[in-house]
Amino acid sequence: MEFQEAIEKIKSGIEEIDQHILLPYLSSEKATERFYYNFHLAQAFVEVEKFEQAKSFIERAWFLSRFSEEVLPLYILINKQLQDVSAIQQAYKRLGMIASKKGKIIDSINYFNQSMYAYAQTLGIDKYNYDYDILDCIENMAKSYRFYPKKRSLSSNTFKIKVAYLTYLATVETSVFYRINLTLAQFHDKSKFEIAFFIPRPESEFVNSNDIIGILEEHNCQVVLTPSSNYLSEEEALIWIAKKIYQFSPDILVTNAGLADLRQYFIMSLTPASVIVNSLYAGPAQYVSPNADWSIASAIHPLLDSPCNTSLIGLELDLTEHKNIGSYDKKFFKIPDDSLVILSAGRPQKFQDIEFWKVIIDLINLHQDLYYVAIGLNQDQLPISLPKEISSRFRILKWREDYLKILGIADIVIDTYPSGGGFTLVDAMALGIPVITFANDYMKLYDQVNWSLGDELVLIPDLIIERGNPQKVIEEISKLISDTYSRHDTGQKCQEFIYNSRGHPERFVKSYEDIYKKIISGIVYQNDNDWDKHILSTFNRGKLFIKYKIQRIIVKIKRRLKGIVQLMRDEC
Question: Mutual orientation of helices 85-101 and 132-143 as an angle, nearest 10°?
């Protein structure tokens, strides 16, 4: 049988093909021929959705092709169907390493990013791990372009500390980073700090924009964008922005998501600043370089697993108020005014737990006037089919810029599970909406798929449900539904607590400033194996040097006096 006949027989799916028909082709002497036959067999089995069989052939084709980019799409397709995330990660990593050896920095970084996000893209879950081979490779690519900044001397108390912020998603208004950047710009003490934001995006994206760039500049902050892609390649743009940071001569470079896009890590690896601090807002593998001098965590659990020295500063931003954002009424979403609404919000990955949806369905069945609104996903991203008889009481909405106005229609907000939210809870409590959240297990390694900020954001114990107790969730929400007074009272208590604990952005920025001062004044420890050595600024070294000199003079005087006394004794 000719090979093409065999392929057509496989595609027909009528009957199994005898392996002995294929063996003469699969055992060809030339590797290039074996690649050809294995690749086309993999394609044929994919067409009839026999992915397990296709995997054997694509694995052979993959290594016989010497990891060819042309084979990658089919290789990824098959492994996605089989949910073999490890194979996908390794494939992207392999191509990233090959691109690195060829000096293709951007291609390499793009492949490494794909490797890092393999779980999110394949299974729709937030799972990220450090790959030290990838980090080492990026550092090696940066070596020949590296800057070697010197620490500046602190000469007086009026000296301004220069802080450079390397931003990620800085211009996306619905991003938490947008809000954080505005808060830092507004509340930094400009009499003591000189602030510059470095945004590795081309100026052409902001030609007709007057949003965040203008706002940052209004707060006396420098803003640096990369030139248009017409002038610089993407690789040149990364080096260009690092050079601008270096020329700014910052005392500290601060990243808001140092590993979320490995372009950020490449810029850090160019060492444009003598001290690098990483902000830590979630999983360390997305935020903190193991080589960072320090990191600042916004929550306890990520701090536990941070690979470097880390301080804890809870996020405090301007809190949401109804008078500032307005609110839709329930009729806008075809929900009766006299009904009750429970609401959750977050990225699609946070809505993938089937048990969570079963709880919501049970609540809808229990309470005839109850509606559920989910913000952040499309209907086709639901992990479960909604029962037809109650499907009309669900509103599934993709993430929208008017999220806060939608939030205002909620009577109760229930946290996503098992991966909880942060700002959704804060925003809801600021609006006086009671929230139901989940306890966190700090005895386990940090897992972004399975954690919650509830213990840190919510004061009322009854609102924090132990994990794996769906019946308790139903009971507590049912109490709030049936008791109007309790619901409003609980919402008021939530509002009071969040304003006291998270409602002072100036306090938040001041805490950042205190950490910066400690780092450059030598109070903190260096991030290496010698945990007993202090990082000393030139100013502190000078003070210690003077102290050392005085001690040496005293020792010399004592020795001289001792010598004179001994001489007098000898003469006597």
Answer: 20
Give ∠ CA 398-401-407 in degrees, rounded to 5.
75
Q: Which residues of 35-68 are buried (b: 16+ CB within 10 A; e: fewer)?
A: bbbbbbbbbbbbeeeebebbbebbbbbbebbeee
Same structural domain, 174 and 281:
yes
Question: In terms of domains, do 363 and 426 share one?
Answer: yes
Tokens coding 403:
């999220």
Integer Cα distance of 92 and 121 in angstroms: 13
Note whether residue 86 is domain-resident.
yes
Is residue 57 domain-shared with residue 182, that is, in the same domain? no
Q: Which two tokens stand for residue 201?
A: 């995006």
What's the pLDDT tens digit per position in 473-524?
A: 999 999 999 999 999 999 999 999 999 999 999 999 999 999 999 988 774 4
User: Is the residue at 116 inside a domain?
Assistant: yes
105 touches 74 (CB < 8 A): no
Please tell me whether residues 270 and 349 are part of one structural domain: no
Q: For 281-338, how does the pLDDT look when each residue is reduced to its tens digit (9 = 90+)? A: 999 999 999 999 999 999 999 999 999 999 999 999 888 765 567 778 999 999 999 9
pLDDT digits (tens, 9 = 90+) for 345-391: 998 989 999 999 999 999 999 999 999 999 999 999 999 999 999 99
Query: Are 279 and 254 contacting, i.e. CB atoms less than 8 angstroms apart?
Result: yes
Same domain, yes or no: 118 and 167 = no
Any bridge partners for residue 254, and if so which? 165, 277
DSSP-derived letter for residue 419 is: B
pLDDT for 54-87, tens place per residue?
999 999 999 999 999 999 999 999 999 999 999 9
Q: Are residues 123 and 88 in the same domain?
A: yes
CA distances from 544 to 53, 285, 525, 526 (A): 70, 38, 17, 18
Task: For residues 280 and 166, state if they share a domain.
Answer: yes
Boundaries of domain holding 545? 539-572
Contact (CB, 8 A) for 168 and 194: no
- What CATH number is associated with residue 47? 1.25.40
What is the average pLDDT across 11-29? 88
Mean pLDDT of the chain: 88
In a domain, 374, yes or no: yes
Per residue, the 3-state secondary structure of 436-489, as one string, reads EEECCCCCCCCCCCCECCHHHHCCCHHHEECCCCHHHHHHHHHHHHHCHHHHHH
Cβ contact 550:540 at 8 Å: no
User: Does the residue 69 lie in any domain?
Assistant: yes
Domain count, the chain: 4
Which secondary structure element, helix H or strand E, spans residue 341, and what is its range? strand 340-345
